[in-house]
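Researcher: Please predict.
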Amino acid sequence: MAATAFLLRSLHFSPAEPRNTPHEKSHRSAYLLWKMMKGPRRRSQAVAAYNSDGNGDLEGDKKQSSFRPFGFVTDNPSSRSAIQLPESPAEDGNVGQMLYRIEDKGRDYGSYVESGNLRWFVRETGSSSQRGIILFIHGAPTQSYSYREVMSQMSGAGFHCFAPDWIGFGFSDKPQPGYGFSYTEEEFHKEFDKLLDTLNINSPFFLVIQGYLVGSYGLTWALRNSDKVSKIAILNSPLSVQSSLPSLFQKLRIPLFGEFTCQNAIMAERFIEAGSPYVLKLEKADVYRLPYLASSGPGFALLEAARKANFRDILNRITTGLSSANWSKPILVAWGASDKYLPISEAEAFQKTNPEAIQLKVIEGAGHMPQEDWPEKVVEALRRFL
């Protein structure tokens, strides 16, 4: 009996102790937290259950709100409802299974177009140009998928809409640098001209621009081809030499570290989330992730383009070229007010450089990619402007 009592004490059990002691309850709470985090539950639900049932180490609502194991989580209700965990770790951990699950996603309204020696993936909505043609240009490291909702609604309003994936991005060709394409600004402009000819876009069209790097190339192309553009709408793009350069592009320009960075398969979705008050739902994140999962090509294309871009020179040309001294055609700056990369003050300063031509529309609740965060408000702004 003495030996049995000693053994029970060593195992922290005692016949006299009540069940569910604090020691046992903490283990049960940890198990409950682990079990809830396994399934497709909201992380906030798991944390709430831990606090209400397990007591844990958290002291009240203050510590509960600071418990953020995933740093991109925000307090926005849409953000919280978007966060989901997979049914099984293999969906996020096994590349083959992930590709099989998402390989047919993200090609809304799109088809392949042969232009010169390259194949572009181009989204198109609307069959007539009753109210004109709109060409949508995306930024790096994303793709034209971000415009799908805006395109659908604008074509319903009578516009003929096109949105290509830049070469090296999305579902377009990603040639190895130096073999037919080297990802310089000049080459992007040259191939873009060829694509317009292939699409039979001849009359002046409306140009919508968003984002860094290749988005900026859309603006520098417009400065060289002002006769082909009737109006320009700019959504959250760098507009001055003082514009901040996100850490992604800074990392890409560091030798060796850039090679490592460019092969991060979740780079695009994390870039979008870091500039927005929201996180992407799984079905959207899948599409932005897919090109970087499928091959190393888009990562190395982005690396090459980022290293060859002279950001300061590009932005200086944009600021000067669109100033009142050099530009008179209408410009709409539709700006997501919650952009974490580019503050609203940048759009306000840009508007002052050409107040006669530039209109500023602030889109509350949207971040760096307002066409993804709040497409309805972008459509409203575009319809009034165009």
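Model: The longest strand covers residues 118-125.
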